[in-house]
Specification:
This protein is 39% helix and 22% strand. It is an alpha/beta fold. The protein has two domains: 4-118, Rossmann fold; 136-231, Arc Repressor Mutant, subunit A, CATH 1.10.10.10. It has a five-stranded parallel β-sheet, with helices on both faces. It has a four-stranded antiparallel β-sheet with strand order 6-7-8-9, covered by helices on one side. The chain has a three-stranded antiparallel β-sheet with strand order 10-12-11. A hairpin with a 2-residue loop joins strand 8 and strand 9 (155-156). It is globular and about 55 Å long. Mean pLDDT is 81; it is low at 120-133.
Length: 233
């Protein structure tokens, strides 16, 4: 099934550019002049991925991102002409999966879209009676990558793609500490050291969600290096 992408940008030339680029790449694309129009359509008919400009008439891309994350785990890419550290932190904190500064290289956008959509699966109507062989179990957490589901003692964690991918990676490498550089490279696609709080902000949100469901699992900081998973009493 073809993947659908919603784009919101008040710049007509940018909408046309993104529409042409994405359609040529094989996606079904709908473009909107405002984030509010995109949100209204999403509530009627959800899509597989959202691309948001930050500055638009009506609610900003940041606000639309937050509203979307309240009702869905759809992956979100935020585009911004201004990309200071505070803007980046705001976007990641509100749940965006990728934050790109304009102008951006089409190849970079394409890689991020492919990565995000590659982890998106159709909803499962009825779970199979048998336990899926690809489940990841760590203490009281159960993750199923094929369904993009994460539970703690049966309670859903409602993770964003970034949070789910981070937790999955930490569980898969539970026997060691994982460096920030490794996470930036493997999860966010940075091939060199950059100044970004993508990992730290995602860890912060993940910790809050683990605390909310009273999980025994904690994401511990290895100062000056990275993170590791620990299990409490």
């Amino acid at each position: 099934m073809d993947k659908s992408i919603y784009v919101a940008d008040d710049d007509a030339l940018m909408r046309e550019y993104l529409n042409t680029f994405l359609v040529d790449a094989g996606y079904i694309v709908s473009c909107f002049e405002t984030g509010d129009a995109l949100l209204d359509e999403f509530r009627r008919k959800p899509c597989d991925l959202v691309i948001l400009d930050v500055v638009m008439p009506g609610n900003s891309g940041f606000t639309i991102c937050a509203l979307l994350k309240q009702i869905s785990s759809v992956p979100i890419i935020i585009l911004a002409a201004q990309c200071g550290e505070s803007d980046y932190v705001t976007g990641i904190t509100l749940g965006s999966d990728i934050f790109l500064k304009k102008p951006f290289k089409p190849a970079i956008l394409a890689v991020h879209i492919k990565s995000l959509l590659g982890k998106t699966v159709a909803p499962v109507i009825a779970p199979p009676p048998a336990i899926p062989s690809n489940e990841l179990v760590f203490a009281d957490l159960v993750l199923c990558p094929s369904k993009f589901s994460a539970t703690c003692n049966g309670v859903g964690l409602n993770l964003t793609h970034s949070e789910f991918n981070l937790l999955t990676y930490l569980i898969e490498h539970q026997n060691r500490a994982v460096s920030r550089d490794e996470l930036l490279r493997e999860l966010w696609g940075y091939d060199k050291i950059v100044e970004t709080r993508a990992t730290d902000d995602t860890v912060k949100r993940l910790r809050k969600k683990l605390i909310t469901v009273n999980s025994k699992v904690t994401v511990s900081t290895v100062w000056g290096f990275g993170f590791r998973l620990d299990v409490g009493e």
